[in-house]
Amino acid sequence: MKIALCHSMHHAEKAKEIQAWFAARGHEAQPSKTTDRFIGLDDLAKEKQKLREKYDQDAIREHYGVIKDADAVLILNYERHDIPNYIGGNSFLEMGFAHILGKPLYLLNPIPAMPYYETEIIAMRPIVLEGNLERLLTQTG
User: Fold this and answer.
1) 1 vs 23: CA distance, rounded Å
2) What is the dihedral of CA 89, 90, 92, 94, to 10 degrees?
3) Total count of domains within the chain
């Protein structure tokens, strides 16, 4: 199975761990192709790198292609900005891509309590894995 991973680049290291977890089970999990360039950077450097990637590498369109080719989309929503299960703007956009494409949409952790777009997240009907990646494999066959 091909799984598109969507996440904050501030969690690039965790995304690589999730990618390896799926690979060990015979599945292809694809974070953004720019993820490796964020490994080891501090938060300020990651923030600067994000904009460069979006401008210079067309990272948003590039990852749309990954989502389009995937069998499922997994949002890695970890705590950020003191918000449990945070979903940032880019991951929210990617959720919208998955929804429009009719892809099965999963959240690693519960839907965050975030003003302005919590309702939209709920409306996309993501399956919440409650931190259990095995559930994605059993629900998609």
Assistant:
1) 10
2) 170
3) 1
SS3 105: strand
Please give the torsion angle defined by the CA atoms of residues 30, 31, 36 and 40, in that order, rounded to the nearest 10 degrees: -130
Q: The tokens 């919590």 sit on which residue?
A: 118
CATH number at residue 117: 3.40.50.450
How many Å is the Cα radius of gyration of the chain?
A: 14
Rounded to two decimals, the pTM is 0.92
Give backbone dihedrals phi and psi of 105, rounded to 5 degrees, phi first. Answer: -120, 125
Rounded-to-integer distance, Cα 94 and Cα 139, Å:
21
Query: Could you report the per-residue pLDDT of 24-57, keeping only the tens digit for each?
Result: 999 999 998 888 888 888 888 888 887 777 777 7
- Kindly state the tokens that stand for 77: 């929503």
Helix axes 59-69, 89-101, angle to 10 degrees: 40
Those residues whose C-beta lies under 8 Å from the C-beta of residue 101, and which sit 6 or more positions away, are: 67, 68
Strands (E), the chain: 2-7, 28-30, 72-76, 105-107, 127-128
- What residue numbers bound the domain in which 101 lies? 2-140
